[in-house]
Design a protein that fits this description.
Two copies of one chain form a homodimer.
Chain A (H helix, E strand, L loop, with lengths): L4 E8 L3 H12 L4 E4 L7 H4 L2 H16 L6 E2 L5 E2 L1 H27 L3 E2 L3 E5 L2 E6 L2 E12 L3 E3 L12 E2 L1 H4 L8 E5 L3 H12 L3 E6 L10 H11 L4 E4 L4 E5 L2 E6 L2 E5 L1 E4 L3 E3 L33 E3 L10 H15 L13 E4 L4 E6 L10 E7 L4 H5 L6 E7 L5 E8 L2 H13 L4 H4 L11 H11 L14
Parallel strand pairs in A: 1-2, 1-8, 2-5, 8-19, 10-17, 11-12, 11-17, 12-13
Antiparallel strand pairs in A: 6-7, 7-8, 9-18, 14-15, 15-16, 20-21, 21-24, 22-23, 23-24
């Protein structure tokens, strides 16, 4: 038995949230240990945001060959997906090496590479090979991330089922892929694969893609993406093996594919932590109850951050949560922090994005909706985004911006402007006072705002105010 | 002699500024005439923003073929620029038909198609074929736009010199083009042509491109674009014909090209207006003196807007100026309006952009500069923008944002965020409280802001505030 380690803060997980927590603990001058069972490197960099964006970019470039007038010789062009995917892994490895290096260099000797579980609220057991290391900490930060859900009904096709943990390791891309789940991850990867020449059938029990709640945007998005992939919505899918193939069935629809990509959500990695021993209260899903303003679990000296919460599985939220958890874990007084305006997107190009309040969180009688279509936006038309659609929700009393949903070329950029505007309490009228260059996709927002602002006109030209 | 027309407002020019002016005059319920010598359709749509963006987009897509790992058969690929340019014109015509239709449908019988000149401040002569139409107006709006400068020293090579008025009419793209002037227009078109396979030599007497004043950004931009086009800076260029070629010389540098593109600036179309007859005071360049808050010329019932001012030759400024001029021309009281934060860019991909105060307008001792390079931004690296560079200028006392310059992939989007933040009086610290998604090029701004915010730390985690 190794001697106990006594430290101010123990951080379980060296991913995005854990590294942000570590930074705050160091900043506060507290001692800490960082515990990770490996592999080091964040979910984002290893299997999430980064390799998916590499794949999406490659898909976009490859698809672009057909979008240029006057090109001859296209038939002779081919894509070797083995080389492409190898190049993707090389770039991915560069991304993943950064957080790994950060963990090793910042934690140094205080990095314990093994799985941890609670013995008590402030006491952890860390398995280091044959040994068990006891860590007695003043506070603990749980930043253990999440893993893809692979439900039991996929067991019969397990050999032909991938998650994003394996997708980027494929030696070559298959001819046909079935994507189960069309949330942001399933939609992104389905489109990337399709643009790289894979035949894709995407299915979801929900009636929308990328989690879009606004039915008008959802319908537009589905219509747009059906031009690239087959989409089955609103029904359960059953799968079975048939020789070397996988049979996908949904109602009367049948498809044969070579592989399945399970994109059915991610589960927080908290089931192996022995939460009960720490006196941690959990909800119906087995997830700790915590306060999003402090990241504290109950009144315990235990904090949680990032995907482990099951709350906002987004890198920029994980960064904030890690910082809040680390800040509070390093101090005796608990500070409450303001969280940012909700912002979620799929980089599906056209991007699907939702900002602020969702349509189903608003009272239809109390809001006005301004909308703008890509056919009215010159730049969007040039970029092939004429079927973009943006809907902005504003308070019917004063035009104050509440939320928005869109499927739009350059939507990721429009979504940032909207998130900032909503967090700042801008109205449609006030936002039009700010410059919109020309010709930019941001003018889509200008058009939608004008529709709202007209209802609150002060008689002055739109967007202009007296000095 | 036709009978005089008596009207409340005469608007000379049916371009962007003129159409915005007309809208305000109609809104105020005043009578008006809209005068344009043709062709109808705005500079932006006919020969400016729109066809240039079509060309840049095509160039980007065509250049992308070499940026995908694993592609075979590239040698067999070719681009027929005759078909490409014809497709560009088709798209351009669609863009140009919109403002033309707007002018005809909104002005109706009050559209006079001929050149106008002043007889007195409120009296215009409009030549309509053989006839002269006298228009007696309560107020006049000058929105006559601008034309490319073609200096006298180009007379000897006139047959081989184009401006953007002719560029898009070429039946096929030449092999080699010399671009004279590397402001935003010259840089954009030089890069578009180069990406479409034309060998481009760009020259400017200035030591920068796209008018960038910040020397660090200027140097980075020049270094980046030299990878695509030959760039000669800081010296006069002489040109002469030599058989079927044009010889370009600058110091010891010599190049032979097939055509020259003169991108040496644009001159306001006010020289034919007989300004003196209206009692209009002009500056050393022969341009009317006006108040940018009212667009009024002196105390006359004459207003000016858009490129005709020689002040801010940008579509979104022309829209504001047209609206201000029209609003004031339609009323007896003059209203002063606040103008927007300066925002200028070249869509050069990486975009060159300047926002707010320029570096040479700031006192070096009173500011702090935050910077961020594309190599630190994951998304920029994926998009090939690792040599992006952003510099943000803030007040050294409090971190208040004053201006920025950049050469950056997605710079057009970053520039909008910055322009809005500057107009709203945000500091680096306050701006970090707003969400930055991941992985986005906007995080380049986040990185630059953090460098500034560190100097004003309140001890809380960056970007987080107490509830």
């Amino acid at each position: 038995m190794k001697p106990e380690i006594r430290t101010d803060v123990a951080i379980i997980g060296a991913g995005s949230a854990g590294l942000y927590a570590m930074r705050e603990v160091r900043q506060a001058g507290r001692s800490f240990v960082l515990i990770d069972h490996g592999p080091l490197g964040t979910t984002c960099a290893r299997v999430g945001c980064m390799p998916s964006k590499v794949a999406l970019h490659a898909g976009r470039l490859w698809a672009a060959r057909k979008e240029i007038a006057g090109v001859d010789g296209l038939d002779a062009l081919s894509l070797d997906t083995a080389r492409l995917w190898a190049a993707l892994r090389e770039q991915r490895d560069q991304f993943a090496s950064r957080p790994e290096k950060a963990a090793r260099s910042m934690a140094g000797d205080f990095l314990l590479e093994g799985p941890a579980r609670f013995r008590e609220a402030g006491v952890l057991e860390v398995s280091l090979g044959e040994n068990v290391q006891i860590v007695r900490a003043g506070a603990v930060v749980i930043a253990t991330g999440s893993r893809p859900v692979v439900p039991a009904w996929l067991a019969t096709v397990a050999e032909r089922t991938l998650t994003t943990e394996q997708l980027f390791e494929l030696p070559v891309l298959p001819k046909r892929v079935g994507v189960l789940g069309l949330g942001a991850i399933g939609l992104e990867m389905g489109l990337a694969l399709s643009r790289l020449g894979v035949e894709v059938i995407g299915a979801d029990v929900a009636n929308t893609v990328a989690g879009i709640v606004d039915p008008v945007i959802g319908e537009r998005a589905v219509g747009r993406f059906m031009r690239e992939i087959t989409i089955w919505l609103g029904r359960e899918v059953s799968v079975s093996t048939s020789g070397d193939e996988v049979l996908m069935c949904s109602g009367e629809r049948v498809a044969r594919v070579d592989l399945l990509l399970a994109a059915l959500g991610r589960r927080p990695n908290v089931d192996g932590l022995n939460l009960a021993a720490a006196g941690i209260e959990v909800d119906g899903r087995g997830l700790p109850k915590f306060d999003p303003a402090t990241m504290q679990i109950g009144a315990l000296p235990v904090f949680i951050a990032g995907d482990a919460t099951g709350d906002r599985p987004l890198m920029h939220e994980a960064a904030d949560e890690g910082a809040i958890a680390g800040y509070n874990a390093a101090r005796s007084d608990i500070t409450r922090f303001r969280r940012k305006v909700p912002l979620g997107m799929a980089f599906s190009d056209p991007d699907v994005a939702a900002v602020g309040a969702r349509l189903d969180q608003l009272d239809a009688q109390s809001i006005v909706i301004g909308s703008a279509g890509g056919d009215s936006n010159g730049r969007a038309r040039i970029l092939g985004g004429e079927d973009s659609l943006l809907r902005v929700y504003a308070d019917a009393r004063d035009g104050k911006l509440l939320g928005a949903a869109m499927v739009a070329t350059g939507g990721e950029h429009i979504a940032h402007l909207l998130a900032w505007a909503i967090q700042r309490g801008e109205t449609a009228q006030s936002l039009l006072q700010l410059p919109f260059y020309h010709p930019v996709v941001e003018e889509l927002l200008q058009t939608a705002l004008k529709e709202i602002a007209e209802m609150f006109s002060d008689g002055l030209p739109v967007g202009l105010v007296r000095t």
